[in-house]
Design a protein that fits this description.
single chain; 736 residues; alpha+beta; five-stranded antiparallel sheet; four-stranded antiparallel sheet; 34 strands; 26% strand
C-alpha cells in the first residue's frame, strides 16, 4: 500500500539503532576544503561563515557516474577567523597537488586536495566522502583589503589605519538574472555576502557586499575591471592593480555600508554600530535584497521621552533605484530584536495577505506584535506596510507543547513550492519553584507546508547524534546550526543545508515524504505501527534519573541514552520537543526533584543540573499524535482517506468496553444523556439503527492477554488499547 500526501515532505530515519550518524544527515565538505591554511592536511582555525552550492539544474541519478561538467559541482565557502578565505570546492576532480595563486601582490603556493581520492564517481565515494579539489579564490590578505578598503572600491584605496576583517554571515547566489551598474549577471553568478564585523572605522563598515565569483589574481575579460588596486600596507599608490587581472576591487562590491544605514535613520545624529549577524535574502526575481538588524543610539538620553535608544527593523536595497531604504521601522527592543534570517515568497505562490495585496512578501521572526511567531510584510515601496501573521506564536507553541517564551526563531527559508522551513533555537528557561517550571527550547527544524500543517523535520536528538558521531562532544553539539538554504536537487535529493559551527563545514539533511518513518520511500500501515510502538515505549520506559528501582540499570524498559537511542524513538518526535534532561536539584539533600513537584515546592535552595546522557522521558506524546492527525484522520483505520463504516467496523470488532453494546457510547461507564447526544447528533445523521445494531451485535468484547491492537484495528490514539478514547477520535472525524 502506498499513500501519497500532497505538499509535505519530511525527513526520516532507517528503523535501526544508531551506531553512527543519522543517515539522512551529511557533511558536504571536509574541513580542509571549507577552511584552512592551505598547508597539506592542515585544517586552519577559521570557521565557515557562509556557503553556497551551484547545482546547474542537473538531475543526478543514483548509481550513475557523476559528470563534473554537468551537475552540482561548485561548493563555495567563506570563512572567518585566524585564516579567513573564500574557497571553491569542485566535485569530481581526482588528484592532489600544489597550485600557485597570485593575490595581486605576491605568488603563494596552496595545497589543493588529498591524494586518497581514488575515483570521481560520487555514487561510489558517497556523499559523506565527496571527491573533489578545493582552491582558494580570495586569501586572508585579499579579504583584509576588502574590509579595510574605502567604500568606493573603484579608487582601490585601502589602509591599515582603517583596519578590520570580514566575518561573513551569508553567501547566497542570485536566484534570477540581474543587471547592476551596467553589468549583466546570470543566475548563480553573483553572491550576496553579509559581514558581521568589517572595518574598524564605523563609516567604512561593509554590511552587505556582492561577490561575482571571479578568482582574485586570475585573468579576467569581464567588468568591472579596475587597475587601481592598492596593497593597504601604507603605500597609497597603485602597486599591483591591473586591467585583465581580477583584483579585490573587481570581484567585490560594497552594496551597503554602515554609513548608508545611518543615512536612512532621520533621528540618528552620530555614527552607530549595526548589530547584524544573520544572512540577508534575495527577492525571488533578484530585484532587491532584504536584511534585518538593529542599531544602538550612542547619544540616547533616557530623560528625553522623545529620544530613542534603538533603531530596529528591516532594510531593503533596491537595484533599480540603487538605493537603501528602511522599510520596517521599530524603536524598541523590549520584546524581541530584529535579528533573524528572513525569507521571501511572492503572493502568487503563497499568499498570507488573503488577497489584500500583491507582491513580494518578506517573512521574518521576532516581531513585537507576534513574539515567537512568524510575520510578513509586502514590499510595496511604503514605510511600515501592513503586518500579516504567517504563523501565530501561540498556535505554534501549543502544537509543540512549549511555553511561548521558549520560542526563538532565527532562521527561515522557503522552497520553490511555498513550503516554509524554520529553525527554533529556543531559550533555556528556568523559573524558581513556587512560581514556575523547568523547560528548555526545542532546537528543531520545522516545516509549515502550503496546506497549513506544522511538522518537525529534525530535532535536537538528530542534531546531537549527527555532531557527536562526527567527533563533537555532547557539550558542544546542540544548537550550533545556521545559514539554512533549500536545494531541490542536490545529488538527487531534496535537502535543507546548514552551517555547522562545531564541524566547521556546510552540512545537509535529506527531506523525505511525510510519515515515512522507516525510510523506505513508501507511506503505509508499517509506518503507523512504528509510531504506535514508540508511543507505547514512551509511556513504558523507566526514567533512570528519577527511578527508585535499584535494578533500573538492567531493567528491560530502561530509557535509551541520547547516543545509543533507537532511531525511531527520536524520529517519531514529530513535535520536535525532544531534548536532554534538565533536572532540578534540592541543594539541601542533593537529590533530584520530580518534575511534577517543581511548581509546588516551597522557597529554598535549588539548582539546575543538565544531564546530556538522557532525553526527557516524554519524547513521543499526544502532541506528536495530534500532528500526525494533520495528515490522516484519527478514525481512518484502513488509510483510504475516508472515515466510514469500514473503519467503524474495525473499531467495533476490537472494542473493549462491553457496556457499549448496551448504549454507553461515551465509554464513561454510564448510559446517560451524553450517549443519547452522541447517537442522535452524529451517527443517525447518516446511519440508521438497523446498521448500528448489526455492527454492535458483532462486537468482539474480549482481547487475548498480551495482544496489542494496532491502528488498523481501531487503536487510533496509539496507547495499545481500543477503548473510549478511540471512540471519541472516531466520532470526531466521522462526519468530516
Amino acid at each position: 500500500m502506498k499513500i501519497i500526501f500532497r505538499h509535505l515532505l519530511i525527513l526520516v530515519l532507517v528503523s535501526t539503532a544508531w551506531s553512527h550518524s543519522p543517515d539522512h544527515f551529511y557533511k558536504l565538505m571536509e574541513p580542509i576544503h571549507a577552511s584552512g591554511t592551505g598547508a597539506p592536511g592542515v585544517t586552519g582555525s577559521s570557521l565557515t561563515g557562509a556557503y553556497a552550492f551551484k547545482t546547474n539544474d542537473y538531475e543526478y541519478i543514483e548509481g550513475e557516474s557523476y559528470d563534473p561538467n554537468n551537475g552540482p559541482y561548485e561548493f563555495w565557502s567563506m570563512n572567518f577567523g585566524a585564516t579567513q578565505s573564500l574557497r571553491k570546492f569542485t566535485l569530481g576532480v581526482n588528484g592532489s597537488g600544489w597550485f600557485d595563486h597570485f593575490d595581486g601582490y605576491s605568488w603563494t603556493s596552496f595545497y589543493n586536495g588529498f591524494g586518497d581520492y581514488v575515483d570521481s564517481d560520487v555514487s561510489n565515494a558517497g556523499i559523506n566522502n565527496l571527491v573533489g579539489t578545493s582552491i582558494i579564490y580570495a586569501t586572508e590578505s585579499d579579504l583584509g583589503r576588502v574590509a579595510s578598503g574605502d567604500p568606493d572600491f573603484s579608487t582601490g584605496i585601502c589602509s591599515v589605519a582603517i583596519g578590520g576583517s570580514l566575518r561573513t554571515g551569508s553567501f547566497i547566489l542570485n536566484p534570477a538574472a540581474l543587471t547592476f551598474n551596467g553589468v549583466a549577471y546570470e543566475p548563480g553568478q553573483l553572491a550576496l555576502v553579509t559581514s558581521i564585523d568589517g572595518a574598524d572605522f564605523q563609516t567604512h563598515r561593509k554590511v552587505v557586499l556582492l561577490c561575482d565569483l571571479r578568482q582574485i589574481g586570475e585573468y579576467t575579460d569581464r567588468q568591472p575591471d579596475y587597475d587601481t588596486g592598492q596593497d593597504g600596507l601604507g603605500n597609497q599608490t597603485p602597486v599591483y592593480g591591473a586591467y585583465n587581472q581580477t583584483d579585490w576591487t573587481d570581484t567585490f562590491y560594497p552594496l551597503v555600508t554602515g554609513h548608508m544605514i545611518l543615512d536612512t535613520i532621520p533621528e540618528a545624529s552620530s555614527a552607530i554600530y549595526f548589530n547584524y549577524g544573520r544572512q540577508a535574502v534575495w527577492a525571488p526575481d533578484s530585484s532587491a535584497i532584504y536584511f534585518a538588524g538593529f542599531t544602538v543610539n550612542p547619544s540616547y538620553n533616557e530623560n528625553d521621552p522623545c529620544d530613542f535608544k534603538y533603531y530596529n527593523g528591516i532594510w531593503k536595497f533596491d537595484f533599480a533605484d540603487n538605493e537603501l531604504k528602511w522599510i520596517k521601522r521599530e524603536y524598541t527592543r523590549e520584546n524581541r530584536m530584529y535579528y533573524c534570517e528572513m525569507a521571501t515568497v511572492h503572493t502568487s505562490l503563497r499568499d498570507f495577505t488573503d488577497g489584500a495585496e500583491n507582491g513580494v512578501q518578506i517573512l521574518f521572526a521576532s516581531e513585537t506584535e507576534n513574539v515567537g511567531g512568524i510575520s510578513c510584510i509586502v514590499d510595496n515601496n511604503q514605510v511600515n506596510p501592513t503586518l500579516y501573521s504567517v504563523l501565530d506564536a501561540n498556535v505554534y507553541a501549543a502544537a509543540i507543547e512549549k511555553d511561548v517564551s521558549l520560542i526563538d526563531i532565527k532562521n527561515i527559508v522557503v522552497d520553490p513550492n511555498g513550503n516554509i522551513y524554520f529553525y527554533n533555537t529556543g531559550n533555556a528557561i528556568y523559573v524558581k519553584p513556587a512560581s514556575g517550571y523547568l523547560y528548555r527550547g526545542s532546537y528543531a527544524l520545522y516545516k509549515y507546508d502550503t496546506a497549513g500543517r506544522l511538522y518537525s523535520v529534525s530535532n535536537r536528538g538528530h542534531h546531537m547524534n549527527f555532531h557527536f558521531s562526527n567527533g563533537v562532544s555532547e557539550s558542544g553539539s546542540t544548537g550550533a546550526m545556521g545559514a539554512f538554504q533549500h536545494y531541490t536537487n542536490l545529488f538527487g535529493k531534496e535537502m535543507i543545508t546548514f552551517r555547522s559551527t562545531p564541524l566547521r563545514v556546510p552540512c545537509g539533511l535529506k527531506i523525505f515524504e511525510s510519515l515515512d518513518f522507516n525510510h523506505d520511500n513508501e507511506v503505509d500501515i508499517v509506518d503507523l505501527r512504528i509510531f504506535r510502538d514508540q508511543r507505547l515505549n514512551n509511556d513504558r520506559w523507566l526514567d533512570p534519573i528519577y527511578s527508585d528501582d535499584p535494578n533500573y540499570s538492567s531493567h528491560p524498559d530502561l530509557m535509551p541514552g541520547i547516543f545509543d537511542a533507537n532511531s525511531n524513538y527520536i524520529n517519531c518526535d514529530i513535535s520536535g520537543n525532544i531534548m536532554y534532561r534538565c533536572v532540578l536539584i534540592d541543594d539541601d539533600t542533593g537529590l533530584p526533584v520530580p518534575d511534577e513537584l517543581v511548581g509546588t515546592l516551597p522557597p529554598g535552595n535549588y539548582s539546575i543540573e543538565k544531564n546530556k546522557l538522557y532525553f526527557q522521558e516524554k519524547a513521543v506524546t499526544d502532541a506528536d499524535a495530534q500532528l500526525l492527525y494533520q495528515f490522516i484522520p484519527a478514525g481512518d483505520a484502513n488509510l483510504d482517506g475516508n472515515v466510514n463504516l469500514i473503519d467503524y467496523a474495525a473499531f467495533a470488532a476490537n472494542y473493549t468496553v462491553s457496556n457499549f453494546i448496551k448504549g454507553d457510547f461515551s465509554g464513561d461507564g454510564n448510559i446517560d444523556i451524553e450517549d443519547l447526544a452522541l447517537l442522535s447528533s452524529s451517527w443517525l445523521n447518516s446511519y440508521n439503527l438497523y446498521d448500528f445494531a448489526r455492527l454492535a451485535k458483532n462486537y468482539n468484547t474480549s482481547i487475548p492477554a498480551g495482544d496489542i491492537k494496532d491502528f488498523s484495528q481501531g487503536d487510533f490514539d496509539f496507547d495499545g488499547d481500543v477503548d473510549s478514547a478511540d471512540l471519541r477520535l472516531l466520532t470526531s472525524f466521522w462526519l468530516k
